[in-house]
Amino acid sequence: MTLFLVLLSRDQEVSHELITAHREYLQTLKAQDRLMLAGPFKDIKGGAYVLKADTLADARALAEQDPLIDSGIASFVVHEWAAH
Q1: pLDDT tens readout for residues 11-47
Q2: Among residues 48, 39, 36, 37, which one has the least CA distance to residue 8?
Q3: Read out DSSP for the chain?
Q4: 8, 37, 62, 74: which could join 50 in a potential S-S bond, CB 3.0 to 4.6 Å?
Q5: What is the mean pLDDT of the chain?
Q6: Which domain, by its residues, includes 36?
Q7: CATH number of the domain to which 38 belongs
Q8: CB environment 40-56: b (16+ within 10 A), e (fewer)
Q9: Neighbouring C-beta atoms of residue 35, cutoff 10 Å
Q10: pLDDT (tens digit, 9 = 90+) per residue, 43-62?
Q11: What total of structural domains would you count in the chain?
Q12: What pLDDT is attached to residue 60?
């Protein structure tokens, strides 16, 4: 599997329910051994996470299922990442 960095950004407030759904989704990815690391930016206008996936298309498909992205609240970009 390859590592992918998912960068999320948003300009609007997010409901507690949507944040909870986002965190639950990340926990599901972690339980599937797909999520390595995740966290918000200090300014709380986005965050990032590191996914394990076979292809960029697979990583994008996983990110698109994130409730923050699926709801249209957050925009995102996915990069294949050669982390050391």
Answers
A1: 888 999 999 999 999 999 999 999 999 999 999 899 9
A2: 48
A3: -EEEEEEEE-SS---HHHHHHHHHHHHHHHHTT-EEEEEE-TTSSEEEEEEEESSHHHHHHHHHTSHHHHTTS-EEEEEE----
A4: 37
A5: 96
A6: 2-80
A7: 3.30.70.1060
A8: eeeeeebbebbbbbeee
A9: 19
A10: 989 999 999 999 999 999 99
A11: 1
A12: 98
Q: What is the pTM of this model?
A: 0.93
How far is 41 from 44, CA to CA, in rounded Å? Answer: 5
* 20 Cβ contact list (under 8 Å, min separation 6): none
| Both structure tokens of 14 | 């997010």
Structure tokens at 13: 């407030």
